[in-house]
Structure formats: C-alpha cells, structure tokens
Amino acid sequence: MNKVVSISNSDLPARERILRTAHDLFYAEGLRATGIDRVIAEAGVTKVTFYRHFPSKNDLILTYLNLRHERWMKWFTEALERHGGASKGAQALPPVMKEWFRGKALGDFRGCAFLNGVSEMGPTMPAVVEATRQHKQQMTDAIEALLPQSGQRKRTAEALATAVDGAIVQAQYGGDPAPALRALQFIADQVTNKA
Question: How many CB atoms lie within 10 A of CB 86?
Fold first, then answer.
C-alpha cells in the first residue's frame, strides 16, 4: 500500500518557500498590499536569504506571475479536456469557468492574477503588462484549439477569450458568479449555433 507523503512548506528549499508564500499572499491580497517583510516572515527565511533568491520585489512578482501562469494554464487545459474539449467546443468554457469561480480549482477565486496585476502595477511595471499579454495569448490559443477549423476560428477564439475575461471580472466584483456564467453560456451558445 502506497503511503501519501505530504510536504509541508517548512520542508521545502528556501526559494520554493518564498515563492509559494508570495504566490498565496499576492493572489489573495494583492501585489502592492503584500510587503516583502511579510513574505519573509511567513516563508520563515531571513532577509539575506530572500534577497539571495530574489534581488527585488519586482523579481519576485515576475516569478510569481510565471508560476501562476504555469499553474493556471495546466488547470485550464486539463479542465477544458475534462469538460469535452474540442468535441464540445465553446460549450466547454462555462463549466470550466464555473469550477474556478466556485473555488473548486486553484483555491479561492479572487479574479485573474494577471488582470489584477495590471490594475495594480500598470505602466509602472511594463513587465507585468507583457506577462499578462503572453498569458492571455496562451489562453486564447487554448480556446482556439477547441474550435472547428474555419476562416473565423482565430477571431472567434479572440472574442471568446474577451468574453472569458469579462466573466472573470464580473464574477470577481459581483460576488455571485451566476450572472457571469449565464452570460458566458449565452455567448458560447451563439458561437455554437453559428458554427
């Protein structure tokens, strides 16, 4: 019988502890609101150790966004497949987003880490804007892979990605994700009926 071994944060190397701690705090409380001293304290490392791994808060923010991208895209592509993938096309999107909005994937939902990051950092940190562009392009590419081949496939994927982003924002500020999910379902129905 295999025994499941759980790794606690304290068992991880210092860099991983810092990054996991920053990931959770940045996503839950925001980039600006989370100070380096708090990350250091909660990760259980010294300032010297922190700065050896991350020379600045900006370095940590970009590493966090990279980690968030990897985790989110892995979940998103697997969830799309779980909910029918290309056989369902655009119809796979509403149940996938429902998983996330309801906290059944990736922990509590607090919106898109990338959109939140751009809202917080904007032009003061162009690298966050670029990371967001790359993240959103990969999300759009994953949506495009769901759709049947057509001359409008790319444009349809871009429109659906915009609808997904709108649903994310509405679910975040509205408190109840149901209206956002209904709107996304309506859009998916329109795309499916046109195909």
Answer: 12
CB count, 10 Å around CB of 164?
24
pLDDT digits (tens, 9 = 90+) for 66-81: 999 999 999 999 999 9
The model's pLDDT over 91-136, given as tens digits with 9 standing for 90+, comes to: 999 999 999 999 888 889 999 999 999 999 988 999 999 999 999 9
Instruction: Give the residue ranges of DSSP H helices in the chain.
Output: 14-29, 36-43, 47-53, 57-82, 85-88, 93-101, 113-121, 126-146, 153-174, 178-194
Classify residue 133 by its DSSP letter. Answer: H
User: In this structure, are residues 176 and 98 in contact, taking their beta carbons and an 8 Å threshold?
Assistant: no
The pTM (predicted TM-score) of the whole model is 0.90
Q: What does each C-alpha distance from 62 to 70, 75, 159 come to in angstroms?
A: 12, 20, 27
Which burial class, exposed, middle or buried, applies to 141 when counting CB atoms under 10 A from its CB (0-12, 13-18, 19+)? middle
For 87, residues 6+ apart whose C-beta sits below 8 A from its C-beta are: none
Structure tokens that stand for 81 in this block: 């497949």
- Which of 136, 117, 109, 126 has the alpha carbon at shortest distance from 61? 117
List, in order, residues 6 or more apart from 124 with CB less than 8 Å away. none
